[in-house]
Structure formats: structure tokens, C-alpha cells
Amino acid sequence: MAFVAKGRFFAATVSALLVTAGAAQAAAGCGKSSAGFSEWIQQYEQQAQAQGIGNRAIGALSNVNYATKTINADRNQKSFKYSLDKFMQVRGGQTIISRGKSQKAKNAALFASIERRYGVPAGPLIAIWGMETGFGSFMGNQHTLSAVATLAYDCRRPEYFRDQLNAALQLIDNGTLAPDAKGAMHGEIGQTQFLPVNVLKYGADGDGNGRIDMVRSKADALASTANFLRGHGWQAGAGYQPGQPNFGAIQGWNAASVYQQAIAIIGAQIDGE
């Protein structure tokens, strides 16, 4: 989600999405190939400008390209079809547990601060951090705006990704997201891979410098992840294994059951449960 905002939280900016939502609706239609994408972007650009999107973001739209690799990845998400054991093996579960314990010890003060603030312990945050980007070692190399614009045009889930495109434009407008930013295949941003809408809703300033940088600041990325889980019903002190109160918050992170279970298993091992 590479994903990323100014102020304590970015939630205040969400209201601005109501203004830009009209741009996505106005750029009607969708496509199943690159044919028509350039024309759609031009239409979208005109409507976004009419809806008040700033010049910085409008200029960024002029540089998007149809992201064929994103479409291929969207059609071929094989790992979520694995058994839990196979998924853990493919994702390097034992390595994440081992390295995660080291990360927990190395960043003890940070994780203690996050738990005090959000009620989320280190384990599940580290599990997400490790599985998403190998603790920030690889956050993706796909042009973020091209990825979300392509998926907003694609007929499979246009409404969902038009919201993401609107959010990405907001982030570019306020300087949080660089116009040429790169991330994961679906437009995810930063060390814990936030989609643009979630940056707006849950982005948090974890290092106290007055801005949010999901790419360069692990404190921001981890605090934002804890804020996301709290926003999805996390209860301080409650368990997070399947059937326990906080497993529902983990389910909010990813729709794949094997991914949810892996977070719970890896997190528990890191937390020593």
C-alpha cells in the first residue's frame, strides 16, 4: 500500500475528495485495453481541472501512461490462491519472524510509543511491514499515478480506483506525493503499502516532524498502519488471532484469508505469544 500528509492526521483532507469525486464520475466509460486510454485521460484532466484540482496534479496527469504491467498483475494474483503453509513459505514467514524480532528489539521505543497511542502491539505491525516490503527494502518500481489511472480506466473495478486516483491527485496537490513517485503495481505507497485513499484517511505523523512520509519514515508508516487498524475496530489489549476481537481489524487490511492468517501467526511469534 509505498504508501505519504501534513498535520497530525490526514483525515481532514478526506472532505476534499467529495469535490474531486465529480471528476471521476464525469470521465465516464472504461476500457479493457490501452485503446482509448489517452482520450479518457484528456477528458478526465479537463473535468478534474473544472472541479478545482490544482495545476501540480493536472500537470502530473499529462505524464501518465497505460500501465500494462499493472493490468497483468491485477489479473494474475496467484499467491492468494495458495494454502496457508504454501503462502507462508512463498512469503518467507520464518525469515520475517526472525528479522521481525530483531526489528522489535531495535525499535523498542518506537513500538512502545505506537502502542500507547493506538493500542496496537508491535507484532502485527511488524508482520505487515515485513510481508509488504521486506521492512522497507523494496517498495515497488511502478509509476504510482499511471498505475491508479490505468486501474481507474480499466473496466474491472473503475469506481474503486477512481476514488484512488482522486486521492492520489489530492496527495500530489498538497505535496505529499511526488508526481513521479513509484510504488507497487496497484498504486500502493510506502513501507507498508497504503493505497492513496488510506493515506488520506489514516496517514499519521509518527516521527513528530509535522508531515507524513510513508516512504522514508518507518515511524510514519508504522504509526499510519496502527491508525488504520484502530480505524477498523482494533481494541487495545484484545487478542488478534482468528476468532478474537482484533482479527476483524486485520481482515480490513487485506481481503485474502491466507494473508490475514499469516499476519496473525507472524505477529504472535514476534510478540512471543
Automatic annotation (TrEMBL):
InterPro entries: Lysozyme-like_dom_sf, MltB-like, SLT_2. GO terms for biological process: peptidoglycan catabolic process. Residues 37-240 form the Transglycosylase SLT domain. Residues 1-26 form the signal peptide. Keywords: Signal. Pfam families: SLT_2. Transmembrane segments: none annotated. One of its GO terms (molecular function) is peptidoglycan lytic transglycosylase activity. This is Murein transglycosylase. It comes from Phyllobacterium sophorae.
